[in-house]
Each structure stands twice: as C-alpha cells, then as structure tokens.
Amino acid sequence: MKAEIASETILITKPALDEFVEGAVNVTNNALSPIIPMLGVVTSLINEIFTIHENAQFNKRMSRTIINRILSVETTIKSLKSQTKYSEKFQDLQHQESFAKFQGL
Fold first, then answer.
1. Which residues contact 95 (CB under 8 A, 6 or more apart)?
2. Backbone angles phi, psi at 35, to 5 degrees
3. Contact predicate 60/53, CB 8 Å
4. pLDDT digit of tens for each residue in the chain (105 aa)?
5. N vs C: which end of the chain shows fewer Cβ within 10 Å?
6. CB-CB contact of 95 with 89 (8 Å)
7. How far apart are CA 40 and CA 46, in angstroms?
C-alpha cells in the first residue's frame, strides 16, 4: 500500500514551508539582535573578572614577599639597636669592670 501524493500538493506546500522558515529566521534575528551586543559586553566583563582575579593572586604573593622582607629588616634593625646599646654600655667603666670579672670566672 503506497500512499501517493500528487505533485500539485508538493508544489503547494513547498512555498508555504519556505515562507515559514524565512519567517522563523526573521523572528529569531529580530529577537536575538538586542541580545547579541549584550553577550559581547558580558563576555568582556567575564574576561576582565578573570584578569582581575589573576592580578589579585599575583599581588597576594608579592605582598607576602614584601612582608617577609620587612620582618627580616625589622629583625636586623632590632639586632643593630641592641648592639649599639650594648657597646654604649661598655663605654661605662662599671660595665667594663663587670665584664672583666665575668671573663675571669
């Protein structure tokens, strides 16, 4: 049992299908045209967010390095200050005598 479709029916439905597809494409283009520029903006914002995040991670590492160096310098400065106070005390005769007694023990 074969269903036969008249060639006239095919010719009549083909233009209707073409018009439908063309209309669907036009509707889709009209619906998406305001969204497409916004997608570009959203994409660029996402890229900027990733760049900012990467820079922040780099800045954290740099900050830790700088803080470690500051702490190292602070320790060195404290050491130098204590040596200065120590050598100032040795200029005093009483401290020199106390140190001499200490060495003699």
1. 89
2. -80, -30
3. no
4. 455 555 555 555 556 667 777 787 777 777 777 777 787 888 899 999 999 999 999 899 999 999 999 998 888 888 877 776 666 656 667 767 777 777 765
5. N
6. yes
7. 10
Separation between Cα atoms, residue 52 and residue 58, nearest integer Å: 10
- Residue 90 in contact with residue 96, Cβ under 8 Å? yes
Q: Which two tokens stand for residue 59?
A: 């800045």
CB atoms under 10 Å from CB of 10, counted, come to 9
Q: How far is CA 75 from the centre of its chain?
A: 33
Half-sphere exposure of 8 (CA within 13 A, CB side): 0
Whether 73 and 82 have beta carbons less than 8 Å apart is answered as no
